Amino acid sequence: MKPQNSPPAVTTGSLTFKVHRRQPELVSPAKPTPRELKLLSDIDDQEGLRFHIPSIFFYRHNPTSYADPVTVIRRALAETLVYYYPFAGRLREGPNRKLAVDCTGEGVLFIEADADVALAEFEEKDALRPPFPCFEELLFDVEGSSEVLNAPLLFIQVTRLKCGGFIFAVRLNHTMTDAAGQTGFLKMMSEFASGEHVPSISPVWERHLLSARVPLRVTQAHREYDEQVAVDTESTIGNREKMVGRSFFFGGAEMSAIRRLLPPDLANNSTNMETLTSFLWRCRTRALRPDPNKEMRIIFIVNARSKLKNPPLPPGYYGNVFAFPVAIATARDLTEKPLEFAVRLVKEAKSSVTDEYMRSLADLMVTKGRPRFLMDGACLISDVRIFAGIDFGVWGKPVYGGIGTAGMAEFPAASFCVPFMNRKGENGIVVPFRLPEKAMQRFVEVLDCVFNDESISKDGSKSPKKLIMSSL
Fold first, then answer.
1. Mean pLDDT for each consecutive 10-residue tract of the chain (472 residues)?
2. Predicted local confidence at residue 414, as pLDDT
3. Which of 129, 246, 330, 413 has a CA between 20 and 30 Å from the CA of residue 93?
């Protein structure tokens, strides 16, 4: 395989390096697989999931091993595709835009690459965190590969580092699977990379289990799919401002400071994600300074696998099994009322996801023609800490594993909670955010006010003081 032309240098902060990629190739299943057409569920093929979602993993060099990560991962991928063979096919669209996988066995896209940079240089330059400015070089967008239909459903790039470590970047078609399903796929790859010959859990298709009922019965309120409103682009929040991305770390000290804003009983009975999601929703609203009467929304992802009882999903089911419940409040209520107000709204929305909610959601997709979720005044926060344990054998667990940037194709205002260890060795959560430039400055100030016990005025301003908590 011939390498491509020498690329321009990639700069991330003060870190500069080059990535040399070989030509893309297709990796097919290691053994013959069935040729068939497999329908997606009505949760899978909703409009809001028709995009590719990327993630990235950094691994250290193992001085006791001479294994080539590219060779090991390519082989493990081919073996995994024997079990997850629909991923080697292509999506087709049928009547009423119904999606199905044509299991052609063509394969998934794979790129072998080398970068003249060491993992330690990322760490020294504080560049081992999202958003990665170099992300597009570590997961190169091959022309046509990001199409939803008739394109590879999975794309992997493995980039060797000069220290012997490597970067594993993956992008997959979201209609095929969610974070839990992707984790199952990657864990099978890690088992084969570690020398196993039989997977611990076999994948299950069975997408009919989350298809619409007959007759259709929309029994729940699905406010996340409210009718789209006509948005005046001239008055849209931050429309004319440059968008910037930064990451924020929330460790034990930060979470304790947030919990002190809540009544003790609520603080003790709320999860870290409920607390942090509510806090960030409130801080983001203060930073944006919308009209006080504007309806602000926080959408979060709830894994519904444990909610489904009639019938339950079998182990190994790797389709999309989550909902986008939404909490809604006016900007005035959200910013002027205590944090308790936001937390209770979030907990209420989260608890609304039940077995019947998911069945009703599948029916809604059919009755309303797969509506998009309403994005005006909304942000989305998703917990992807499940990616932390992807172990490719001799290289152990990733130093960083998760989303590579804030935002996604269908939802630029999306943020993801990723497990992270800061320079002090403290474990916590890092959250990349994208905001208009001036709003980002105010967002940093709002956070600093909380973590420095400062008061904030209703317009979000603060008295001058050295900021000790900002982006990483």
1. 45 73 97 97 93 92 90 97 98 94 98 95 80 84 93 97 96 95 94 93 96 96 83 45 86 94 95 95 96 95 93 95 95 96 97 96 94 89 82 86 74 82 86 92 92 52 35 30
2. 83
3. 413
Residue 64 corresponds to which tokens in the numbers above? 């006791």
Q: Give how far the C-alpha of residue 365 lies from the chain's centroid of Cα atoms, to the nearest Å.
A: 22
Is 61 annotated as catalytic? no
Q: How many residues does the chain have?
A: 472
Give the Cα separation of 30 and 80 in Å (integer): 8
Q: Is 68 a catalytic residue?
A: no
pLDDT score, position 133: 66
Scan for tokens 């009467």, then name that residue: 293
What's 125's DSSP letter?
Answer: T
Residues with Cβ within 8 Å of 148's Cβ and at least 6 positions away in sequence, in order, are 50, 51, 52, 91, 173, 175
Catalytic residue among 44, 383, 391, 448: 391
pTM of the full structure: 0.88
User: Which of 297, 394, 316 shows the shortest CA–CA distance to 68?
Assistant: 394
Neighbours of 376 (CB within 10 A): 15
Q: Which domains occur in the chain, in start order?
A: 10-210 (3.30.559.10), 223-451 (3.30.559.10)
Q: How far apart are CA 139 and CA 27, in angstroms?
A: 16
Out of 61, 174, 383, 448, the active site residue is 174
Phi, psi of 250 (to 5 degrees): -125, 100
pLDDT of residue 134: 81
Closest CA to 301 of 362, 380, 247, 372: 380
Long-range contacts of 86-90 (CB under 8 A, 24+ apart): 86/38, 86/153, 86/176, 86/205, 87/153, 87/154, 87/172, 87/176, 87/185, 88/28, 88/29, 88/33, 88/153, 89/153, 90/149, 90/150, 90/151, 90/152, 90/153
| Token couple for 127 | 């560049």
Q: What are the angstrom distances between the C-alpha of 127 and each of 120, 416, 454, 472? A: 10, 17, 30, 9
